[in-house]
């Protein structure tokens, strides 16, 4: 995970050095354990590794999504959503063996990236089969549906690093869209 974050830092340093300078340091084992105690599960090792490198990524929209949550934002987002855990699904889709389809929301879906409209990218710690634990899913509030994104956070961030290196991201030149303490907004090219 350190190599992936080094690639992300290098690419962002080329296009938005002030974002790199403001990147938060990694979380401590105690901070990670505290969030795990709140959400009631142990995070996969790739997630723990990533948060040891950086505790979130403000000012950068990953894909068409928002910024990578800090651990505190992850816990807050999870607390807001967990009240809906176990509710029945809104539609009658058949189980596909990839993502649980018997609930509208699972307490085992851990939000890592918001999308700004109620949708969220999650670490799936409650998949229908154990070998899928830790996969990344994209949950939509419209119909309360989820779709598969990647096998884990490592693969998800690897794709993000490759997109940065391929110049698929740019700094918002309008000056009007700023997030994260006045940082310029780094976003996917339209």
Structure report:
With 190 residues, this protein is an alpha+beta fold. The protein contains 6 helices and 8 strands, in the order H-H-H-H-H-E-E-E-E-H-E-E-E-E. The chain has helices at residues 2-15, 17-21, 29-39, 45-53, 71-82, 153-165; strands at 109-114, 120-124, 135-140, 145-150, 169-171, 178-179, 183-184, 186-188. The strands form 3 sheets. It has a 4-stranded antiparallel β-sheet. A hairpin with a 3-residue loop joins strand 6 and strand 7 (183-184).
Task: List the defining traits of the structure above.
alpha+beta; 34% helix; 8 strands; four-stranded antiparallel sheet; 6 helices; 190 residues; two-stranded antiparallel ribbon
By helix and strand content, what is the structural category?
A: alpha+beta
Biggest sheet features:
4 strands, antiparallel
Distance between the termini: 28 Å
What's the pLDDT, averaged over the residues?
89
Portion of residues within helices: 25-40%
Strand content: 15-25%
What best-fitting shape do the alpha-carbon axes yield? globular
Helices and strands, in N-to-C order?
HHHHHEEEEHEEEE
Number of strands: 8
Name the poorly predicted regions: none
What Rg, in angstroms, do the CA atoms define?
A: 16 Å
Main sheet: which strands, in order across? 1-2-3-4
Count the helices. How many? Answer: 6
């Amino acid at each position: 995970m350190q190599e992936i974050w080094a690639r992300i830092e290098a690419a962002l340093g080329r296009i938005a050095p002030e974002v790199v300078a403001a990147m938060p340091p990694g979380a401590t084992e105690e901070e990670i354990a505290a969030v795990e105690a709140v959400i009631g599960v142990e995070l996969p090792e790739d997630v723990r590794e990533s948060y040891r490198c950086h505790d979130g990524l403000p000012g950068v929209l990953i894909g068409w999504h928002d910024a990578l949550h800090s651990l505190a934002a992850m816990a807050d987002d999870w607390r807001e959503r967990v009240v809906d855990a176990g509710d029945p699904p809104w539609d009658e889709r058949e189980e596909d063996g990839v993502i649980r389809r018997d609930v509208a929301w699972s307490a085992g879906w851990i939000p890592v990236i918001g999308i700004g409209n109620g949708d969220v990218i999650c670490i799936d710690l409650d998949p229908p089969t154990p070998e899928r634990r830790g996969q990344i899913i994209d949950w939509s509030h419209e119909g309360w549906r989820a779709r598969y994104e990647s096998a884990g956070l490592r693969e998800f961030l690897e794709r993000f690093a490759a997109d940065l290196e391929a110049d698929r991201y740019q700094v918002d030149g309008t000056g009007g869209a700023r997030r994260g303490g006045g940082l310029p907004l780094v976003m996917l090219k339209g």
